[in-house]
Write a structure and sequence with these properties.
Blueprint lengths: L1 H4 L10 H8 L7 E2 L11 H8 L13 H11 L6 E4 L1 H13 L5 E4 L6 H8 L3 E4 L10 H11 L3 E5 L11 H8 L4 E5 L21 E6 L12 E4 L2 H10 L7 H11 L2 H23 L4 E3 L6 E6 L5 H10 L2 E2 L1 E4 L5 E6 L3 H14 L1
Parallel strand pairs: 1-11, 3-4, 3-5, 5-6, 6-7
Antiparallel strand pairs: 2-8, 7-8, 9-10, 10-13, 12-13
The structure holds 4'-deoxy-4'-aminopyridoxal-5'-phosphate.
Length: about 350
């Protein structure tokens, strides 16, 4: 297909082992703050479950039935609304393949998670971009106008947003939901926000899909488990399109074990939020960086004019600190830094001070 032939390969991150070998450093000496992972990892129960894993020779439950039942209790939506995927990534792909025909339109609000744009292009849809404002808030009047005029099938909203960490208000979300469009609300980072998830809104709105993941607040990024709550009018099509055994035996067992230790997960969440605030204060003192307040487990920093974000990222990488750089639409340079453990922040800050 021509739209695939023309695509460049998007590599999300480089493996930590590759950098450790390149720098001749131990993996434990690399500070990995580039992919918004959780530095603490899942509760100890997960290691026990994986160590004694049974049924690796049997296909996993195609419905992730126990996991959906456990999630339903916690989330306040019936399990009939829920589908579990191999990460939220898989659910984004499923939404595109179920909702869109070639030539259909979606609205995307960059800068944001790039996967929506890539997956829409893969099914031959057109992406209408409504860029965010300079403070990264949504350009709501424009989103509404474009949605009314262009009649897209879906509007994608990340809340809190990646890469900047900003939120959408209840009022703005309600305005969007009153339009004839499917609103896909990606709540991958919602646990760090202190705000209530809108996942239970799917019971009220037939045009809302909410995505969440075990990758961030639960520390299970490597096992690939995400889930979505879908309107009942859509969910059966998601089941049709989903690969039968999309979530492995190990991933389902680990996610269930994680849910059984909510105190551990809450402690991790609290540590990360506390460290985010400390890291914000420290980054604010670096003369060539301007951090943006964040409701997530990462902080976006604007780089002073005259300094290249990519160069800074490369210099930090040489010192064993992995972060992301972006050149966003206004051509200013930005760094996105994941909140790690306090020791990670301290090493990062030492390196930034050396660069200064
Ligand atoms: N949505 C957003 C906004 C993300 O940043 C990410 C991960 N980078 C995902 C979804 C995908 O998460 P998962 O690991 O569950 O596929």
């Amino acid at each position: 297909r021509s739209n695939i032939r023309n695509m460049s390969i998007f590599k999300a991150t480089q493996p930590i082992e590759v950098l450790s070998r390149r720098l001749g450093k131990k993996v434990s000496d690399i500070v990995k703050l580039d992919a918004n992972e959780n530095p603490y990892g899942p509760p100890p129960e997960v290691a026990v479950v994986l160590g004694t894993l049974q049924f690796a020779n049997i296909y996993p439950d195609p419905d992730s039935g126990y996991l959906r039942a456990a999630l339903a209790e916690i989330l306040g939506v019936g399990s009939e609304y829920l589908v579990v995927g191999s990460g939220a990534d898989e659910l984004i792909r499923l939404i595109m393949s179920v909702m869109l025909d070639p030539g259909d339109k979606i609205v995307d609000c960059p800068p944001t998670f790039p996967r929506y744009e890539i997956e829409a292009a893969l099914v031959g849809a057109t992406v209408i971009k409504v860029p965010r404002m300079v403070d990264f808030s949504l350009n709501m009047p424009q989103v509404i106008e474009v949605t009314k005029k262009e009649r897209p099938k879906c509007v994608f909203i990340t809340c809190p947003n990646n890469p900047d960490g900003s939120m959408i208000s209840d009022e703005d979300l309600s305005k969007l939901l009153n339009l004839p469009v499917m609103v896909v609300l990606d709540e991958a980072y919602i646990a760090f926000s202190g705000f209530k998830s809108r996942i239970s809104w799917v019971k009220r709105y037939d045009n809302l899909i909410v995505l969440q993941t075990f990758s961030k607040s639960c520390g299970l990024a490597g096992l690939r488990v995400g889930y979505g709550a879908f309107p009942l009018s859509i969910v059966r099509y998601i089941w049709c399109a989903k690969l039968p055994y999309n979530v492995s035996v190990a991933a389902q067992a680990a996610a269930l074990a994680t849910l059984q230790n909510p105190i551990y997960v809450e402690d991790m969440r609290r540590s990360i939020v506390q460290e985010r605030e400390r890291m914000f204060g420290l980054l604010n003192e670096i003369p060539f960086l301007k951090p943006f307040p964040s409701y997530t487990n990462f902080i976006l920093c604007e780089v002073s004019p005259g300094l290249e974000a990519k160069k800074l990222q490369e210099e930090l990488e040489k010192m064993g600190v992995m972060i992301r750089h972006f050149n966003l639409s206004d051509l200013r340079g930005y760094l996105r830094i994941t909140v790690g453990k306090p020791r990670d922040t301290n090493i990062l800050l030492d390196c930034l001070r050396i660069l200064h």
